[in-house]
Amino acid sequence: QYILAIETSCDETAAAIIRNGTEIVSNVVASQIESQKRFGGVVPEVASRHHVEQITIIIEETLEKAEMKPSELTAVAVTEGPGLVGALLIGINAAKAFAFAHSLPLIPVHHIAGHIYANALVAPMQFPLLALVVSGGHTELVLMREHGSFEVIGETRDDAAGEAYDKVARVLNMPYPGGPHIDRLAHEAQVGVDFPRAWLEENSYDFSFSGLKSAVINYKHNMDQRGEEIDPKKVAKGFQDSVVEVLTTKTLRAAREFQVNQVIAAGGVSANKGLRTSLEQAFEKECISFTVPPLKLCTDNAAMIGAAASYMYNAGVRGDLAMNGIPGKELKSWI
Ligand code: ATP
Ligand code: MG
Ligand code: FE
């Protein structure tokens, strides 16, 4: 089984071919970071234009690298949502055209299911499983009792973790996307500024990062008023320590409560060194298997979409040419 997958939900134009849901045959990602940098974030219209220019080239390159012809493919998968509607539609229309031209089934994939299934490319999933999804637009704990079954047991009430990283980076005058820069700076400080942790109600698995973000902004503002220079390394470390501690503690508590056999991390922020180390240590001590994708499978890519699609294909999920982009699509079970 060979699935051609396409992902264009945000600012990466990506395509990949996945064999049997576990093996990457080819994986191509064209990032727009350089052109989006000058705007300090992703401008939807700019993203769509880049996707239009890139998509055909990226799909061809993916087939070439795999040394495969369309006739050898089993299905075409594409991200249906959530994401920027104009960006999603470029990938969806490319996928529809390809599927129609080569008489292949079409599989609509949820972007976050894709992030989670990046882990299926690392090791077989063991259920029940707890996924910590931390990305640019999402922060949630998802319980999976089997393939294709998703229960969101907690989520952010305001900013996503990645969003908080990007906003704090802006305060520190660092370029977009800020996550990797803060991560690097945080490791250069011994002690961080003491910022608050948002635990919310005692039993809650929800998250909140806007208070932390405001605390960083206020700290900078107060220092400016006093004519003092902030130390970006200490701010980065203080911020990262707060994010990592809350994410690790809540994930650990949920893993215990639901007695899971595996914990996985997914999404762009799971590329964070501090978070990876903290989760690895916590679950090693707890004797629960922990998996996180290699860095380039944490941020947006199409290999993860192909991995999820493979299990969807096996479960009989099919889309059709009427499929549309769904910007606010919810994570629903497919079984
Ligand atoms: P979503 O997946 O929720 O739709 P998205 O696709 O825009 O959002 P991703 O591509 O999964 O998000 O992740 C991008 C985010 O990951 C950005 O906010 C970026 O700052 C963050 N990020 C990337 N690397 C790191 C890192 N090392 N540390 C912290 N954050 C990081
Ligand atoms: Mg991105
Ligand atoms: Fe993403």
TrEMBL record:
Gene3D superfamilies: 3.30.420.40
Class of enzymatic activity (EC top level): transferase
Record's subcellular location: Cytoplasm
Family annotation (CDD domains): ASKHA_NBD_TsaD_bac
PANTHER family found in the cross-reference section: TRNA N6-ADENOSINE THREONYLCARBAMOYLTRANSFERASE, TRNA N6-ADENOSINE THREONYLCARBAMOYLTRANSFERASE, MITOCHONDRIAL
Main localization, broad class: cytoplasm
Keywords associated with the record: Acyltransferase, Cytoplasm, Iron, Metal-binding, Transferase, tRNA processing
InterPro entries in the record: ATPase_NBD (IPR043129), Gcp-like_dom (IPR000905), KAE1/TsaD (IPR017861), TsaD (IPR022450)
Gene: tsaD
Annotated Gcp-like domain residues: 23-306
Required co-factors: Fe(2+)
BP GO terms, sorted: tRNA threonylcarbamoyladenosine modification
UniProt protein name: tRNA N6-adenosine threonylcarbamoyltransferase
Listed GO CC annotations: cytoplasm
Record EC number: 2.3.1.234
Organism in which the protein naturally occurs: Ureibacillus sinduriensis BLB-1 = JCM 15800
